[in-house]
Design brief:
40% of the residues lie in helices and 16% in strands. By secondary structure, it is of the alpha/beta class. It has a single domain, classed as TIM Barrel. It has an 8-stranded parallel barrel, surrounded by 5 helices. Helix 8 links the parallel strand 9 and strand 10. The longest helix is centred in the middle third of the chain and has 22 residues.
Length: 347
């Protein structure tokens, strides 16, 4: 019985539940199934290694941050065939996030809206979860750790939160993502503006150099940006990435626009919209970044990937790697292999 067929059976039941409840049931079940070896039935992609940021990725299809904010389910997610896994966003201190309900499905648009608000157990608990995973202990693959700021930290002190988290997660990460693009933490996207961004990136690169010397290895630092940027803003960000020698950029996070979902149930909920409506928005940002960055700073493409052909289009736009999130919710684990096989065929 294929994993595609099994997910086709499970999805209608999961979609009867509200989105966050389904999420909170599925991930523990996935973790349990992995521990029992039940996920061995899932067809895995053939190796298709890509060297990006000096890291050898087994295949170019990764899991985007947000699905496993605390690193509790690393081993279950690793069993799905991803070339790499990104977990978080984690903040220095534990915080509950925004009140429920805070996640909504828009099935007619193959989309989600979330306003989770970086709900997580804090960076110390996060690290313990990473250390406890077999994936980390046995060095089974590539683990990206995504960091953010606490909701109650004033925006002018945001850098302190990022530096605190970078210091904590550095020894355990294959790469570290700096998330300045979630729409669900007040004023966070302000950090994408020129003066704030220069200050943040400068301090992060100084810390990276110090930590590389301390730990005797260089861990790449990656910036995650929003899709809701105009051409000048994208050029400004690209200039900052080059100026500060940032190792990579993830394009993109969720959008605050609603043009593609007008009139649908939940379309007016506040939060970030992900899924199919973000596909073209993120591709536009990727293309503009590629024009500015060339091959100097690699791009990780994320947003609205629901098929192998979508994955190929992200790479054609200029991405070196891709990530899945919402497509996984709608299509199930079979999407991982479909995307990886499509990219391997093109490589």
């Amino acid at each position: 019985m294929s994993d595609k067929f099994l997910y086709a059976l499970a999805r209608p039941l999961l979609f009867l539940l509200d989105a966050e409840t389904a999420h909170n049931l599925t991930l523990p079940a996935l973790k349990r199934a992995a521990s029992l070896g039940l996920l061995n039935i899932i067809s895995k992609p053939q190796p298709d290694p890509r060297i990006v940021m000096g890291i050898r990725f087994p295949n170019p299809v990764g899991l985007a941050a947000g699905l496993d904010k605390d690193g509790t389910y690393i081993d279950g997610l690793a069993a799905l065939g991803f070339g790499y896994i990104e977990i978080g966003t984690v903040t220095p201190r534990a915080q509950p996030g925004n009140p429920r309900p805070r996640m909504f499905r828009l099935p007619k648009a193959n989309a989600l809206i979330n306003r989770m608000g970086f709900n997580n157990g804090g960076v110390d608990a996060f690290i313990k979860n990473v250390q406890a995973s077999k994936f980390y202990q046995n060095q089974e693959g590539i683990l990206g750790l995504n960091i953010g700021k606490n909701a109650d930290t004033p925006i002018e002190r945001a850098g302190e939160d990022y530096l605190h988290c970078l210091e904590k997660v550095y020894p355990y990460a294959a790469y570290v993502t700096v998330n300045i693009s979630s729409p669900n933490t007040k004023n966070l996207r302000q950090l994408q503006q020129a003066s704030e961004l220069d200050e943040l990136l400068s301090s992060l690169k100084q810390a990276q150099a110090r930590l590389a010397d301390q730990h005797k290895r260089m861990v790449p630092v990656v910036l995650k940006i929003a899709p809701d940027l105009d051409e000048e803003q994208i050029k400004t960000i690209a200039g900052a990435l080059l100026r500060h020698h940032i190792d990579g950029v993830i394009a993109t996070n969720t959008t605050v626009t609603r043009d593609a979902v007008k009139g649908l149930v939940h379309a007016e909920e506040t939060g970030g919209l992900s899924g199919a409506p973000v596909f073209d928005l993120s591709n536009r940002v990727i293309r503009l970044l590629k024009q500015e960055l060339g091959d100097t700073v690699p791009i990780i493409g994320v947003g609205g990937i629901f098929s192998g052909s979508d994955a190929k289009e992200k790479i054609q736009a200029g991405a070196a790697l891709i990530q899945l999130y919402t497509g996984l919710i709608y299509r199930g684990p079979a999407l991982v292999k479909e995307c990886a096989d499509a990219l391997a065929a093109d490589n």
